[in-house]
Specification:
The complex is a heterodimer. By secondary structure, chain A is α+β, with helices and mostly antiparallel strands. Chain A has five helices and five strands; from the N terminus they run βααββαααββ. Chain A has one domain: Histidine kinase-like ATPase, C-terminal domain (Heat Shock Protein 90). In chain A, a hairpin with a 3-residue loop joins strand 2 and strand 3. In chain A, helix 1 runs antiparallel to helix 2 and helix 2 packs antiparallel against helix 5. The longest helix of chain A has 22 residues. Chain A starts with a strand and ends with a strand. Chain B is an alpha/beta fold. Chain B has a single domain, classed as Udp-n-acetylmuramoylalanyl-d-glutamate--2,6- Diaminopimelate Ligase, Chain: A, domain 1, CATH 3.40.1390. Helix content of chain B is 38%, strand content 18%. Chain B has a five-stranded mixed beta sheet with strand order 1-5-4-3-2, sandwiched between helices. In chain B, helix 4 links the parallel strand 4 and strand 5. In chain B, helix 2 runs parallel beside helix 3 and helix 3 packs parallel to helix 4. The longest helix of chain B is centred in the last third of the chain and has 10 residues. Chain B is globular. Classes of the chains: A alpha+beta, B alpha/beta. At the A-B interface, helix 1, helix 2 and helix 5 of A face helix 2 and helix 3 of B.
Chain lengths: 141, 117
């Protein structure tokens, strides 16, 4: 691949039921490009957790997935409340999600840790009251 | 373990993708917390759960899971059934509780996250 390829998605913050649609689409797109299943799984899980987070915490946002020569870059941007304590949020089991979200199978404090687990690099830029941008990369080679 | 064997062991009904009953699963996860599933499950697994919402199907899809067993006679919605069909995921319905269903599969050789290659 000589040129970068970008997939752009709007993540609807109103509907928990539809959360994950962008990740499903990314998975399909990457399959068409012939990327290995293991890489696809890591990208789609990392993005799926990010998507769920945007719906749960930030009222939605946008997701851009760039396919570069040596890596896949996922950029998740929202204009939600921001993350108060990133170190705490990175700890497994720490969550500020409501009980309602927990009954749906999420909000167990595994979202950000899972995103880190499945990506090769992850950078969080968050400002209270302004929003959060997360950039993750998964190496192709 | 073949999906058809799981069906027999659990006395389960097949709801979707009967054509995939001959596929094998190599590990299993019994869980209602999807984030835990996303954290720990390995390739080509079966998910046993009592949770019913579309994110269960999406989680399974993200993990390349081949089968979901809904326990305690839980019935997935039409939307979930459609999502599973799109992804080729076999849905089994069992009246057993999660603990019992997991125990039956485990004692018949389907252990946790050990992946056969």
């Amino acid at each position: 691949m000589s040129e970068e390829l970008i997939f752009h998605f709007d993540v609807d913050g109103e509907d928990f039921t539809s959360a994950g649609q962008a990740s499903v689409q990314v998975k399909k797109n990457l399959r068409r490009l012939g990327i290995s299943p293991e890489i696809i799984r890591r990208v789609s899980i990392a993005m799926y957790e990010g998507e769920i987070n945007m719906v749960i915490h930030a009222g939605g946002g946008v997701a851009d997935v760039k396919v570069l020569e040596d890596r896949i870059e996922i950029v998740l941007t929202d204009h939600g409340p921001g993350i108060k304590d990133i170190d705490m949020a990175m700890q497994e089991g720490y969550s500020t999600a409501t009980d309602n979200i927990r009954t749906l199978g999420f909000g167990a404090g595994m979202g950000l840790p899972n995103m880190k687990r499945y990506s090769d690099t992850m950078k969080i830029d968050s400002t209270l009251g302004v929003g959060t941008t997360i950039v993750m990369t998964v190496n192709i080679q | 373990m073949k999906i058809s064997t799981m069906k027999d062991l659990l006395g389960a009904k097949v709801l979707t993708c009967e054509e995939n009953m001959g596929r094998h699963v190599y590990s299993a996860c019994g869980c209602d917390l999807m984030s835990d599933v996303l954290a720990y499950v390995k390739d080509q697994a079966v998910l046993l759960t009592g949770l019913v919402n579309p994110q269960v199907i999406r989680t399974a899809e993200m993990m390349d899971m081949v089968c979901i067993v809904f326990v305690r006679s839980k019935m997935p919605t039409e939307e979930m059934i459609e999502l599973a069909k799109e992804s080729g995921i076999v849905i089994l319905l069992s009246d057993k509780r999660l603990y019992e269903a997991c125990g039956i599969l485990y004692s018949n050789g389907l252990v946790g996250n050990k992946v056969k290659t």
